[in-house]
Amino acid sequence: MGADLAIELEEHVNGNGRHGALVDALSHVESDEAKDEVEAVDEAGLGAVIESMLLASGAPVPLARLVDALEGPDRREVAAALRALGASYEREGRGLRLVYVAGGYQLRSAPEHARWVRRLLGGRPPRLSRPLLETLAIVAYRQPCTRPEIEAIRGVDADAVLASLVERRLIRILGRKDAPGRPILYGTTKDFLEVFDLPDVQALPPLGELGDGAEALVARAEAAAGTSGVSDATAAPADDPPPDPGRDD
After folding, report:
1. Domain spanning 130-224 has what CATH number?
2. Which of 7, 34, 61, 201 is 20 to 30 A from 137, comparing alpha carbons?
């Protein structure tokens, strides 16, 4: 609010032309607002601020985004605060866990509290059928891939299954393959990483170790069902510490 407007307002209210008190009050307000804008987060309160940010977000937040939003602490300081926050949840037996999933950090309910969370939310989250899991496994391990390639592996039509996976936001359309007919290319999404508790697609178990990709996803889906208080994804095992916050991808 400008000084001229303050003068006019004071004169209108009091009718005596005295405006010093109001101008001073408005100046203090403007000064406080400016102070709030530039106030830095102190080291002691950094963990609490990050905790609030992650809780408000719900979705995984990359390290780089946290650093940008905090406007002060550098990557090393934010990473250290994340490590301390995750360790405090474990040490104090809190009901939250800090996990690194889908390229970011997220607060989730402790897995040992899953049955109570499920009662509150009204049962277990929807399960994926066998055809959905098999198709999802093919996309996950062979992405980007096309419907004809998926159908060649499964031996059945995949049109309806792919549509269902897209609707569930587990896979997405990446573009079209430079081949006759320009078939659609499919790949997994960040929601897929969250549901199956993966930091990125490179963390998928090697097929050589597990044999059947669908079986691997079945095992993860069984472990994931109903253990998160913020999404349908699973929380990390209690004895699995948060990954190194030095990542920001």
Report:
1. 1.10.10.10
2. 61
SS (H, E, C) the chain: CCHHHHHHHHHHHHCCCCCHHHHHHHHHHHHHHHHHHHCCCCCCCHHHHHHHHHHHHCCCECHHHHHHHHCCCCHHHHHHHHHHHHHHHHHHCCCEEEEEECCEEEEEECHHHHHHHHHHHCCCCCCCCHHHHHHHHHHHHHCCEEHHHHHHHHCCCCHHHHHHHHHCCCEEEEEECCCCCCCEEEEECHHHHHHCCCCCHHHCCCHHHHCCHHHHHHHHHHHHCCCCCCCCCCCCCCCCCCCCCCCCC
Q: pLDDT 10s per residue in the chain (249 long)? A: 444 544 444 444 444 544 455 445 445 545 554 444 445 566 668 888 999 999 898 888 999 999 999 988 889 999 999 999 999 998 888 888 898 888 899 998 888 887 888 888 776 666 788 888 889 988 998 899 999 989 888 888 899 999 999 998 999 999 998 888 899 999 999 889 888 888 888 888 776 555 555 555 555 544 544 433 333 333 333 333 344 444 444
Provide the residue type at 79 as one letter: A
The tokens of 227 are what? Answer: 């253990």
* CATH tag for 46-109 (out of 1.10.10.10, 3.40.30.10, 3.40.50.2300, 1.10.443.10): 1.10.10.10
Residues 2, 23: Cα–Cα separation, whole Å: 9
